[in-house]
Design goal:
The structure holds 2 protein chains of 2 kinds. Chain A is built from 8 helices and 12 strands. Chain A is an alpha+beta fold. The chains are: A alpha+beta, B alpha/beta.
Chain lengths: ~325, ~550
């Protein structure tokens, strides 16, 4: 066991624990975006940074291991300042409207004011073509953003990279932290870095196996069930009316647990609990998307979205 | 590893280039199923083969990338992520000759028109500030070439044709010995240090380097002997890396050494390998230095023939492909390993976990070439040069509004003003001097009395960095200079961590706004503090340092 102090309080943590784990063990939660228990820490979002005595810069608590005698500050002026600015830089360049409530609370706590960099730049459609090391002369009239059209290239899920904070989670889940499919990677460089397939080909043309595990780990709603995306677009997504039912996937004998998100008696999305011993939150295409057969619809070609949309059309709300 | 490839096939020319570097692998339909270690062990060939295709064909097509992935067993999305990371690799078709016109801070002092189009693109500093303005011609099927005044050139260059090289220790052979002849190198004192090092043995060589007080010349000034001792104590295999990715705007000293005295770099590396027991050495040369790379390649060949390199220790040259960030040591490791050149969070440090996850000595070119002198004369003799905390001589890159731009070697401890005098003094009335590079700081003429040492620069809150001394006279538009530096960092950030990826954009935007409105100094200050504290690597830590120094000196407002 290793003894250290966090904000003056003595903490004893197992060897190999991270500072984040040590903080959480005494009830001091830290904000995180790119961190997930089931993935290797990539320490890129930098909102979990803490101050360690003797260290020239702040250190990411999600990946830094505890060391004997460490003196850690999680609420110093330096920590608060960096977290505030990092959140501001993100919120001024990415659409964060669908992030978790807990992240919103942290942003309120740090008095995040993304508007001070100017008005946000409108959507552009050339982000996938940008060449490393070259960008147009910046005029400073707008705060540059990653706003771009939503990629809708298959019937199962959409990629709305206007919401992408480049946390690398989807790449990790697609790669050797879960699925080992490697359909996506980070491409480009600097502010023009983006999650991409090879040469930006559409998902059905690439290596994607549509397991949807990237959706499962996305913290900002950049990756989303197509059903959810279309319901949201029609203003028909009502999370407060949804029920979540836990069940066991019936396709094979592995025993993956599913959480069926149901609205208007229709399944609108499927997730799996991150703490489930079989799945760690990950599923395959069948468990994630193969739920049509339980909808008992008269017309087998009807999807739940169609159904909801049809009702909306009939009611005149679309 | 089960990999889904694309359907695209390479052209015959592309296949030939790829086949020359990588053997084919057994095919299993459009999927590859070749397991574990055998799949991963070729990944380090990715950058060399991408470079070869770019250089021979002029761009990397889908068919070529697919063929590379098939032979190296790399997922196409990952290979595309790597290819699109580098400025000198194009994943779209383009003219067979592309001119990269330097419009960085030294070159823009002498050139105001920057044409652009498909065949002409702007480039960050090409490391030719002593003979500016410079153009890099990337030519499909023909070796790349850097044009500068004195060469035949399509851009009607005007400027300094014969740069100055002054120095009698590290630069003694430059311009005197034939850089393409191992015999000439031996005639000018080469190989004596290596012979002595082999006779002394590893422990004694490390002791001499420690006694010399040599500190790293790459910018961080870490004691070289300490680094070597730490790696030598780690389990084998260990690696040695010479960081020749000199990309700091205003810096060209390592290029001058590699072009003018390539055998010295190799001899120094062999001595380092003798001392630390490294199994393999790499020289990571900046992609924009084609001449340095070809001279080193030739020198390696001759050294091998002479029996100084062999199975017990050999050196490989890796050419960068246009990414300043790859000069950061851990980004450099990732680049060699065939990954994106993104820096790693430290700790662990390279001495424990470096290249391929092994203990690694990584030294800058200038640091390494100090070693033969230390071995020959002894650490104490070396320590007697300079000051107690800054031993030895230092290479400085003088450019800008200076009479004789060039590379100057001086003992540390002399005043900045003396160095400037050595280069013939300033041209015009100087309003600012850029010290240490784009990651350094501006100083004014009061700093001319400052002794050039690590300790004196640190106490003034500046850094000698990579040895840049660039002068700007009162006719210069400092706002334009500072904005170009901000643009540089925005272009060169790897994009991995938020503070640097977005912070560099916001700093550039704030500077752009200040053309027509009051400068938002407070905002820049806040962004800089967050970048300094929360970024992963040195690029983010120093990206706004120059801007802040310009503000505090009143150069911009």
């Amino acid at each position: 066991m290793i003894s250290l102090t966090i904000d003056g309080q003595t903490v004893v943590s197992p060897e190999g624990a991270t500072l984040l784990e040590a903080c959480r063990s005494i009830g001091k939660d830290q904000p995180t975006l790119c961190y997930l228990e089931t993935l290797a820490p990539v320490n890129v979002c930098r909102v979990c940074v803490v101050e360690v005595e003797g260290s020239r810069t702040l250190v990411p608590s999600c990946s830094r291991k505890v060391e004997p005698g460490m003196k850690v500050q999680t609420e110093s002026e330096r920590v608060r300042h960096s977290r505030k600015v990092v959140f501001e830089l993100l919120a001024s360049s990415v659409d964060l409207s669908l992030v978790d409530d807990s992240v919103q609370e942290w942003m309120t706590n740090y008095q995040v004011d993304p508007g001070r960099f100017g008005d946000l730049a409108p959507l552009v459609d050339d982000r996938d073509e940008r060449h490393a090391g070259h960008h147009y002369e910046n005029t400073g009239t707008h705060a540059e953003t990653v706003f771009q059209p939503v990629k809708v290239d298959n019937s199962l899920y959409v990629r709305d990279y206007s919401r992408c904070i480049l946390c690398y989670k989807c790449v990790e889940a697609c790669g050797d932290d879960a699925q080992n499919t490697f359909a996506i990677a980070v491409a480009g460089r600097g502010f023009d870095a983006r999650i991409s397939t090879e040469f930006d080909v559409a998902l059905p043309q690439g290596a994607c196996v549509f397991c949807g595990n990237c959706i499962g780990v996305c913290p900002t709603g950049a990756l989303m069930f197509r059903s959810e995306h279309e319901l949201r677009a029609s203003d028909l997504w009502h999370e407060e009316e949804q029920t979540v039912t836990r069940t066991v996937c019936s396709y094979c004998g592995v025993g993956c647990n599913l959480e069926l998100h149901v609205q208007d008696n229709r399944i609108v999305k499927v997730t799996s609990p991150i703490d489930h011993s079989v799945t760690s939150g990950h599923l395959c295409i069948k468990g994630r998307f193969g739920y049509e057969y339980v909808q008992q619809l008269g017309d087998l070609a009807t999807t739940p979205i169609d159904d909801v949309l049809r009702r909306a059309r009939e009611a005149g709300t679309v | 590893m089960d990999i889904r490839l694309m359907d695209d096939a390479p052209s015959d020319a592309e296949r030939a280039v790829i086949a020359a570097l990588i053997d084919p692998v057994e095919e299993v339909g459009s999927h590859l199923a070749i397991g574990g270690h055998s799949a991963r062990r070729h990944r380090h060939l990715l950058l060399p083969v991408l470079s070869a295709v770019q250089s021979e064909i002029g761009w990397v097509s889908k068919g070529a990338l697919n063929e590379i992935c098939r032979r190296l067993v790399i997922p196409p999305a990952e290979a595309y992520g790597v290819a699109s990371f580098y400025a000198l690799i194009s994943t779209t078709e383009r003219p067979s000759v592309v001119a990269h016109v330097c419009d960085d801070i030294a070159c823009r002092l002498v050139r105001s028109e920057f044409p652009h189009g498909d065949a002409v693109v702007s480039s960050p500093c090409l490391g030719q500030c002593d003979r500016r303005p410079a153009v890099l011609l990337q030519r499909a099927g023909v070796e790349d070439v850097v044009n500068a005044p004195g060469d035949q050139d399509p851009f009607e260059l005007v400027g300094v044709a014969d740069p100055t090289v002054v120095g009698d220790r590290l630069l003694a052979r430059v311009g005197h010995a034939d850089p393409e002849s191992i015999g000439s190198y031996a005639d000018h004192g080469g190989w004596q240090a290596l012979e002595k090092a082999r006779a002394l043995g590893p422990a004694a060589v490390i002791e001499e380097v420690e006694r010399s007080g040599l500190k790293g010349r790459g910018g961080a000034a870490f004691p070289t002997g300490v680094k070597w001792r730490a790696v030598a104590a780690e389990p084998a295999p260990r690696y040695l890396v010479c960081n020749a990715d000199e990309s700091e705007p205003g810096t060209f000293k390592d290029r001058v050494v590699m072009e003018g005295d390539p055998f010295a770099v190799i001899e120094s590396m062999i001595i380092a390998a003798v001392a630390t027991g490294c199994a393999k050495g790499y020289i990571y040369v900046r992609g924009e230095y084609p001449l340095a790379a070809s001279r080193l390649r030739h020198a390696l060949h001759e050294t091998r023939l002479a029996g100084q390199l062999g199975p017990e220790f050999d050196i490989e040259i890796i050419r960068g492909q246009g990414a300043y960030i790859c000069g950061e040591e851990t980004a450099l490791f990732n680049s060699i390993e065939g990954l994106r050149g993104e820096p790693r969070q430290k700790p662990p440090f390279p001495a424990q976990v470096g290249l391929f996850g092994r203990p690694t000595v990584i030294n800058n070119v200038e640091t390494l070439i100090n070693v033969p002198g230390i071995v020959l004369e002894g650490g104490e003799a070396f320590a007697a040069i300079g000051t107690p905390d800054s031993a030895g001589t230092r290479l400085f890159c003088l450019s800008g509004d200076i009479n004789r731009p060039g590379t100057y070697e001086v003992a540390m401890g002399g005043a900045l003003g003396e160095l400037v005098d050595l280069a013939g003094g300033f041209v015009g009335e100087t309003q600012a001097i850029l010290l240490g590079g784009a990651a350094g700081a501006f100083v004014d003429t009061e700093a001319l009395s400052m002794p050039l040492t690590f300790e004196d620069s640190r106490s003034r809150g500046v850094s000698l960095g990579s040895g840049v001394v660039m002068a700007f006279n009162s006719s210069r538009d400092m706002h334009d200079v500072v904005r170009r530096i901000a643009r540089f960092f925005r272009d060169e950030s790897c994009g991995q961590c938020v503070p640097c990826r977005v912070g560099t954009v916001r700093v550039e935007e704030a500077l752009a706004r200040s053309r027509s409105a009051p400068l938002e100094a407070g905002l820049i200050d806040e962004i800089d503090r967050a970048m300094k504290d929360a970024s992963i690597c040195g690029l983010g830590h120093t990206a706004a340092s120059v801007v802040r120094s310009a503000i505090s000196l009143g150069l911009i407002s």
